[in-house]
Amino acid sequence: MKIDCLSPSWIIERVGGPYTDFRPISSLIRFGTASWTYQGWQGQVYTPHFSKSRFKRECLGEYCQYQYQGRSLFRTVGNDSGYCRPPTTDHLRRYLNQIPDDFDMCFKVWNQLTIPRYVNHPRYGTWAGQPNARFLDAQLFKDVVLRPFREAQFEPHTGPFLFEFPPHGMSAEKFCDQLDAFFGQLPTDFRYAVECRSPGLLCPRYRNILVKHSVAHVYTHWSYMPPLLDQHQRLGTFTAPFTVLRLHTPLKMSYETAKKRAEPYTKIVEELPQMRRETVHLVRQAVTEARRTYVLVNNRAEGNAPLTVQALSDQLRNMFVANSPIATGMDD
């Protein structure tokens, strides 16, 4: 006997008598980690037989095959390398050789497009401290970022492009104006998501621009942002037919401290109950509204991203089971 549970995409299956076999099979929810090349996951996600060079080249295929409770746990993954350099056509073709059909990769967008002003740091050379003339340059994005995806025919595996905007001194009005103009020039056959790391920019105009262009707000659990549900309350709604959550670090903790606390990423160093609860709440709400949902977890949140994903998956399943017609005595 099969019974729909709150959403057509969630099925609860009764296997002979007691309700002991509950199987979430949502096509809307895609769990993954912020990246995948962590040596600390050998013996957990990866079999410990790779050389270091081969590990980086080939571990993505094994990542995609990782099983939890008899199912593939990861149906997406973040790719942070695009933040420093956009992937080439050859890079994308190599990924295609390792990922299954129903798998998406979410690429961070080149930082030359998302930094309004270069930090005053020697690594930027003569650009240090200067305004960035490439900031939100739509033609540059289409030519340098999108073109390789088309050439590699990577579109079926392309999750939302992640535009991560660091804290900056730009006014909300100016930022929203540039965001509006930028997304108005982009092709609509790709999906885009904005991770804004300046709490003051989460205003009605920001929300309205994202809604106008069907761009998702990224609910980011990051050092100096408000909690996930606080972000949603400020926006009042999801802004696109899909949504993205990225769980980076504990709140009010710097990246450096979170990194030191979590290394070598082999275990949960501290559970973050509020982060888990609010993630599950947002995912459940998005699914009931038939929105595809991407959840990307960083090791630096709790110490070991795969274990955090497993815990979130269990918590979601238990929530849907608890609210099912079976559990509430409404089984006719």
The largest beta-sheet arranges its strands as: 3-12-11-10-9-8
What proportion of the residues form beta strands (DSSP E)? 15-25%
CATH topology: TIM Barrel
Helix- and strand-based class?
Answer: alpha/beta
Largest sheet: 6 strands, parallel
The residue-averaged pLDDT reads 89
Q: Quick one: CATH superfamily?
A: Protein of unknown function UPF0759
User: What's the number of helices?
Assistant: 10
Q: How many domains?
A: 1
Question: How many individual β-strands?
Answer: 12
Tell me the name of the CATH class: Alpha Beta
* N/C terminus separation: 11 Å
CATH architecture: Alpha-Beta Barrel
Shape: globular
Helix content: 25-40%
**SSE topology string:** EEEHEEEHEHEHEHEHEHHEHH
Describe the protein's architecture and organization.
The chain is of the alpha/beta class and 332 residues long. It has a single domain, classed as Alpha-Beta Barrel (TIM Barrel). Helix content is 33%, strand content 17%. It has 10 helices and 12 strands. It has a 6-stranded parallel β-sheet with strand order 3-12-11-10-9-8. A hairpin with a 2-residue loop joins β4 and β5. α4 packs parallel to α5 (204-212) and α8 (273-288) packs across α10 (305-322). The longest helix is centred in the C-terminal third of the chain and has 18 residues, at 305-322. 36% of the residues are buried.
